[in-house]
Amino acid sequence: MFEPNVQRVLDLIRPGDLVLDIGGWARPFNRADWVLDAEPYETRGYYGASLPAQGGSREFFTRETWVTRDVCDRAPYPFADKQFDFVICSHVLEDVRDPLWICREMQRIGKRGYIEMPSRVAETCRGTEPNQVGWSHHRWLVTIDGQRITFLMKYHRIHSHWRLSFPARHLRSLSEAQQVQWLFWDDRFEAEEQTIHGVDNIESELAAYVAAVRPYNATLLGLDRVTRALAHHARRPWYWAMRRLAAGQSREAK
């Protein structure tokens, strides 16, 4: 969780509130009374001393209140409607196969909550991992706008060309706050998936997002457009027919 928001979350939790942390295994939020995660209680704290637990020094949850299960298995979580006063889900939804299911269950069992994920701009930068755009284990490009979360599949096309992502220097220019996004919700929020059909449309969406920031100079973009135009023509049968015809005429001229 973004460190400045830890205290904000704690301030929203009243002493008698019942709190759930969904996906808290790697870095548990200690104020949570319950944790729901695919990994077992005994192995909690994957990040160890480099990223210690947040939410206080004492664990409120116990082995008995740690529920180990697939959070996306489409079976209702073992909790009653609005059982929890506060639900935390930090850096989980971008990883999982069905974030919409988790969002629905969060709203069913929780009254209020906090959600955090990497920003789309950070997920679109090269330089986080070698030869990757963003984090290799993340499945989604996410946008939070007000009380709406939009999930766009992180299409493999994003790794295919530099103009579909930001250079590593852009990532280095982002503050910690710009690399994450969050949502404080009360009772309800909206969650949806954005789908795109067709390779050209996928590429257009990714390129348009990057182009809006203009991280590349005009000369580089101009050379790229010429290169892609030539490559596009090279795929057309008439292009090669004209090349063969021109080659034949050149031999006859000699």
Walkthrough of the structure:
By secondary structure, this protein is an alpha/beta fold. The protein folds into 2 domains: 3-216, Rossmann fold (3-Layer(aba) Sandwich), CATH 3.40.50; 217-254. It is built from 7 helices and 9 strands, in the order H-E-E-E-E-H-E-H-E-E-H-E-E-H-H-H. The strands form 2 sheets. It has a 6-stranded mixed sheet. Strands 6-7-9 form a 3-stranded mixed sheet, with helices on one face. Helix 2 (99-109) links the parallel strand 4 (86-90) and strand 5. The longest helix has 17 residues, at 218-234. It is elongated. Residues 249-254 have low confidence and may be disordered.
List the helices and strands and how they pair.
Elements: H1 3-12, E1 19-22, E2 34-37, E3 66-68, E4 86-90, H2 99-109, E5 112-118, H3 120-123, E6 140-145, E7 148-153, H4 168-173, E8 180-186, E9 190-194, H5 199-211, H6 218-234, H7 237-253
Concise synopsis of the structure shown:
The radius of gyration is 24 Å and the shape is elongated. The strands form two sheets. Strands 3-2-1-4-5-8 form a six-stranded mixed sheet. Strands 6-7-9 form a three-stranded mixed sheet, with helices on one face. With 254 residues, the protein is α/β, with parallel strands linked by helices.
